[in-house]
Structures are given as structure tokens and as C-alpha cells.
Amino acid sequence: MPEPMELAYEERGSGPVLLFIHGFPFDRTMWVAQLAGLAKIRTAVAVDLRGHGLSDVMSGGDFSMDLFADDVAKTLDAIGADKADIVGLSMGGYVLFSFWRRHPERARSLIFIDTKAEADADEAKAGREKTAETAASQGMQPIYETLASKVVGSSPSVEVQDKLKEMMLGTAPEVAAADALAMRDRADSTADLPNITVPVLWLHGEEDALMPIEGARASAAKVPGAKFVSIPKGGHVSPMENPEAVNAAIQEFLKSL
Question: Could you tell me which of 67, 95, 145, 211 has the fewest CB atoms within 10 Å of its CB?
């Protein structure tokens, strides 16, 4: 596995660190409303995973959720944070599970958003491979055209749609391909759910078509003491679609710790 790297990040506010990990194929700018809304209670930090946004790709091997998790840990070192409340959306949630397995002592709490614990089944793995092949051979336009309507709920704003387009088309095709294969090969995290010993908040868009909310609710129920909150008018990118509800849920959760 390649060496961990310090990621590019955006930071707002002061106090204990609240770190956000984006989904596929996005970057740290998906969290703009969270950085603005939660900086009054935490040092809110949004990272760019390697190859995304302002972070370098760095050569030396394939991407993996474990590598991404180690990159996050190295970035916490650079920030000077021994522990953090860590948030992950979709692929960022997969990174969060890996982070918990590899660096449990550094997690103050875990916040899963629009993600799942299960590994990909064979059909989904084939889909990841197709995504990787499409990105490598045709670029990001067909990925955007396929995903754009699937990641939002029934009433996305023009601003959200424009931001999604900007992030997707701004992702390097080779990075998207590596992401897809890393997601294909990720570990099943179902067995981790009952063994999580830090506070957990699970947020999920009510209109998430990619990962239906019933599965998320069932996963959260397996985590001791976890709090589950459904996000109205939210699809797979609920923090962008309904930031007020997401921020309120996170703020209430953090105040309860």
C-alpha cells in the first residue's frame, strides 16, 4: 500500500475538530453549508481525498478505503488533532468504517450519511468495473450524465445541480476509475456495527434512490446507542439538498456528547 499523505483541506471555526469526508465523485466543496453552519461549535474541516480537489494523486499503488483512512489520520496529525468527530457520506462512509477499524482511538464520534455497511454484491461489483472502464475510456461526461439524476431527491435546487456538475466533471477520470475499483474491493463492515464503542449518528435522505433508507435504518439499529435521523427532501447528497436539517441534527448530536 502507498504511503499515507496529508490531504488538502478547508477549515473554519474553532474548538474540537469535526472532519468531513466527501463521496464519489465529489470533493470537499460539497460540505460548504456544513463548514458555514457548524463552525460556531467546532473546528469544521473538509478534506479532499487523494486525487480529488486540491489533493495530489501520488503514485505507488491502487486506491483503497484503508489508504484513504490512513490519509485522514495523517491529516489529523497535520492539523494537530489527536481525536475528531468524523463525518462520511457514501464513499466517505466506507472510509469512515475503515478509519474505525484502523484508528479507533482517534474517533470521538462517527457520523454516517447516506452510506451503507455492506460490501458490494457481484452485480454491484460489475457496475463499479463498468464505471471505471467508462471513466478511463470516455472521461467524466457519461459518468455525470448517469449519476446526476440518481444522487438527488425529487426537488433539487439549480444550485445543487450546478455544484454536482462542477464536482463530477472536475474529477480526473483516472481518479474516478481508481475510486470505483477501491469501492468494489472494500471490506464488508456489517460485522463492525455492533462493536462500535463511540457515539454514532446516522443521517439518511428520505428520497435516497441509490441507498434506500430502510437499509440504513436497519444498519444503524445494530450500533449500540446510535441515533438515526431521516432527512426530508434529501436524496443521496442530503447535506447539499437539505443542509438546515443535516446541520441541526449534527449540532444536536454533538451537544449531547
Answer: 145
